[in-house]
Write a structure and sequence with these properties.
Length: about 300
């Protein structure tokens, strides 16, 4: 019995304190209220500020690269590379499987985009929506060929002008690259949110603000809708201490003369999920690391 009592006493000593004991032990400590909403807001503010920094650094990098004699050739090649994978491609083998089953090619392509190129899911969607009168309607958020086609002749005319200065040509290339990096809303998320009663434009704005995350986009639509889509296109104040500190950093200065850094900034603006890729890149990683460190330091002070 003595051994049992000793074992029980040992277990009691090792038992975690209850709520009352914790309250008594921490009564003299200052309160610290860090709820989840505050943390999420801070993260959102960081992403918004980082976007502003990238927008302003892109302007600086463009001006620096315009002075480089080889920049036009480099960015012409980069533009050609983007031409190869610019539009969202449909898996040809998957498309062939569905068309061989008797589904029309247009519907099959739409179903594959909605189901992220999964043939079973695409087939399920096609059967489920076979009687849907809008089955052949283009997906919301898809780039329409109209504006692109309207701009193409102007671009071709500019490119064929013999007396066009290299700087103007480089500016044109920057614009074409930026257009190809334009945001593409996740079609399935757009449809889901529109089914809740939201307008297509505001749904696409919500997905753009929330990096194509459907749940976050829904919260934005139901909340105060901050940041606004217009804020996403505004850079940081060029006279702010933060931006001056970034520009004064030697690693950043050197990185801004590298065309790859500019492409990385452009990509991260429209595809924030690709940030990890550029952070691990030996050329662009050090630049992003310095920007992050400076931001964190300035934010603390």
């Amino acid at each position: 019995m003595a051994d049992v009592s000793a074992e029980e006493k040992k277990k009691q000593d090792q038992k975690a304190p209850d709520k009352d004991a914790i309250v008594r032990a921490t009564a003299s400590l200052p309160s610290c209220n860090m709820d989840r909403a505050v943390v999420q807001t801070s993260m959102r503010d960081f992403q918004t500020e980082l976007r502003k920094i990238l927008l302003s650094l892109i302007e600086v990098a463009q001006k620096l690269l315009a002075l480089s004699p080889g920049a036009v050739e480099l960015f012409t090649k980069a533009n050609a590379m983007l031409d190869e994978d610019g539009e969202e491609r449909v898996d040809e083998a998957a498309l062939r499987q569905l068309t061989e089953m008797g589904f029309p090619e247009g519907r099959a392509a739409k179903a594959l985009r909605l189901s992220h190129m999964s043939v079973p899911q695409a087939m399920e969607w096609l059967i489920e929506h076979a009687d849907d009168p809008t089955i052949d309607t283009p997906l919301p958020g898809q780039a329409s060929p109209g504006p692109a086609g309207a701009e193409a002749p102007a671009e071709a005319a500019a490119a064929s002008s013999e007396d066009e200065e290299p700087r103007d040509e480089l500016t044109g290339i920057f614009k074409r690259i930026r257009r190809k990096r334009a945001f593409r809303a996740d079609a399935r998320a757009v449809i889901s949110l529109m089914e809740m009663g939201f307008d297509e434009k505001e749904v696409i704005d919500a997905l753009r603000v929330s990096d194509n995350q459907q749940s976050a986009a829904c919260e934005w639509l139901l909340g105060d809708r901050k940041p606004s889509p217009e804020e996403l296109d505004k850079g940081i104040d060029p006279n702010s201490p933060l931006f001056q500190a970034i520009l004064d950093n030697p690693v950043v200065q050197l990185g801004l003369t590298n065309p790859k850094t500019l492409l990385a900034f452009e990509d991260m603006l429209e595809n924030p999920l690709n940030s990890t890729q550029w952070m691990n890149d030996p050329e662009t990683g050090p630049v992003m690391l310095q920007i992050s460190r400076i931001f964190q330091t300035m934010n603390r002070t």
